Amino acid sequence: MTPECPRCGAALSSLSLGAATAVACEECGYADVEADHSGEPELAESWADALARFEENQ
């Protein structure tokens, strides 16, 4: 039994690299690949702070 894509319902293909295996959908591009989203987001530097830092280094 071939698993179905959770996005579009098409048949999923199995992909393997070494000991790791994942499934992907050739129709919509869905990929069942685990990702680590646990990191803390970095705060972006404001334009005002960037320009002030630039002026300090001149």
TrEMBL record:
<protein>
    <recommendedName>
        <fullName>Transcription factor zinc-finger domain-containing protein</fullName>
    </recommendedName>
</protein>
